[in-house]
Amino acid sequence: MPSGRPLPRLRDRCIVADVFNFIVEFLMAEPIEGATGFRERLDEVRERIATVARRCGREPKEVTLVAVSKTHPASAVREALGVGVTDFGENRVQEAESKIPALQSEAARWHLIGHLQANKARRAVRLFDIVHTLDSVSLADRLERACAEEDRDELPVLIQVDLAGETTKSGVSETGLSELVKSVNQYSRLRFLGLMTLPPFFEDAERVRPFFRRLRELRDEFKTAGQFGDGRGELSMGMSHDFEVATEEGATIVRVGTAIFGERIP
């Protein structure tokens, strides 16, 4: 090509894609720390969940542990699969697009737990088994259409509720929740599983208890009204620093990353 002539746009995009894929493959190939430390952390989290559940008169199996693998390499997920973890959470569609196909495991069930932009709805439908962060009718429309386009009969979803009114976080407000639930239940391919929340972070986990309790109360109201059909109404709440409080307040899904995998890779 003559000197000084700009590269074609398509080639520019291909170069950027190649660089991105190289970086992703490099990160995915990074080894995780020893298996013993990983298993110890996993066993400790499982035992803490079981202890709290029994103390509250619940069966430990009522609580699904989602191992949040965001920013961690595929080798970490393989290690988790090897010791019986089946549910994994990812925040970003872009990261999941490289990680999930690389693993090719039928045993894994993938949860989208980060904010989903409407323009990535179709990609999310291809990748994830469950979406936790439905927060608007427009996004529900996109997901329903994407399911039809991808010939997917059913997509389980949870509605993310912003109970603290934080501008930095996604989620439907409590006042808009009923209308969104009503809309979601009118779709043929979306299956309304339950509610999810991401409360403010407090060093003292006890301070998040009112948010978890309120989400449970809302779930109970919708369950009484028959909005979950035959389902129990899932409650996705609680992370590494507060999953025990969430379990006490009725969580059926806890999303734990750092306490299992260790500190995130930047």
3D structure, described in words:
By secondary structure, this protein is of the alpha/beta class. It has a single domain, classed as Alpha-Beta Barrel (TIM Barrel), CATH 3.20.20. Helices cover 45% and strands 14% of the residues. The chain is built from ten helices and eight strands. The protein has helices spanning 9-29, 35-55, 74-82, 93-103, 121-127, 137-149, 174-184, 209-224, 243-248, 258-261, and strands spanning 64-68, 87-90, 109-112, 130-134, 155-160, 190-196, 234-236, 253-256. An eight-stranded parallel β-sheet has the order 7-6-5-4-3-2-1-8. α5 (121-127) packs across α6 (137-149). The two termini are 38 Å apart. The model is unreliable at 1-34 (pLDDT under 50).
Descriptors for this entry?
266 residues; alpha/beta; TIM Barrel; eight-stranded parallel sheet; 10 helices; disordered N terminus
Q: Separation of termini?
A: 38 Å
CATH hierarchy, class: Alpha Beta
What CATH architecture would you give? Alpha-Beta Barrel
- Helical fraction equals 40-55%
Described by the principal axes of the CA atoms, the overall outline is globular
Largest sheet: 8 strands, parallel
CATH topology: TIM Barrel
Count helical runs.
10
Any low-confidence stretches, pLDDT <50, length ≥5? 1-34
Report the β-strand fraction as a percent range.
5-15%
- Over all CA atoms, what is the radius of gyration? 20 Å
**Pairing-aware structural class of the strands and helices?**
alpha/beta
User: Could you give the order of the helices and strands?
Assistant: HHEHEHEHEHEHEHEHEH
How many distinct domains?
1
- Arrangement of strands in the largest sheet: 7-6-5-4-3-2-1-8
